[in-house]
Write a structure and sequence with these properties.
Length: about 100
């Protein structure tokens, strides 16, 4: 069952990359996150649920925002993606590197 699932997800990623023209769009990240959410729900675990739900919500909002911008002008999509990535990086908490 695991091998069949892995093959299906690999095929899904290959098809998405081919359809997207090699833009680096993959679906396995979203699929894996949603699978983990479902497994946690089945197990009654809430350990990482908030982070996983946040990831799925942010992916949806990012896609919605970029597609809306691209409906106005196709050149706005990459700009929205770059701005979103910049905001996300700046919002991350600062951590120190390993102690030397």
């Amino acid at each position: 069952m695991l091998a069949v699932s892995a093959a299906a997800m690999g095929s899904q990623t290959a098809a998405a990359k081919r359809a997207a023209g090699g833009s680096g769009v993959t679906t396995t990240f979203v699929t894996g996150t949603m699978t983990s959410l479902a497994q946690d729900a089945a197990d009654g675990s809430t350990r990482h649920a908030a982070v996983r739900v946040g990831v799925v919500v942010m992916l949806f909002l990012g896609a919605l925002t970029a597609s809306g911008a691209m409906a106005i002008d196709a050149r706005l999509g990459p700009a929205v993606a770059a701005a979103g990535a910049t905001v996300a990086i700046l919002a991350l908490p600062r951590t120190r590197g390993p102690a030397s």
